[in-house]
């Protein structure tokens, strides 16, 4: 199943999160990504999730769905 995952510090504001959920729910269920650390910034947590997925970890399906691992040469 598909879902839209929200991340970033702006989503911490309830009115922004609610507006995004209201607009995106018609496409797929909307979820907020769990922050992995109380110390690390949101971008660092996102980089960790992508890196971990690229090496075949728990987040591999997310990375596959995003097409990040599909590297093709382009000129």
TrEMBL record:
Classification via InterPro entries? DUF1464 (IPR009927)
Q: Name one Pfam family in it.
A: DUF1464
According to UniProt, the name of this protein is Uncharacterized protein
Q: Which organism is it from?
A: marine sediment metagenome
Please spell out the taxonomic lineage of the organism that makes this protein.
unclassified sequences, metagenomes, ecological metagenomes
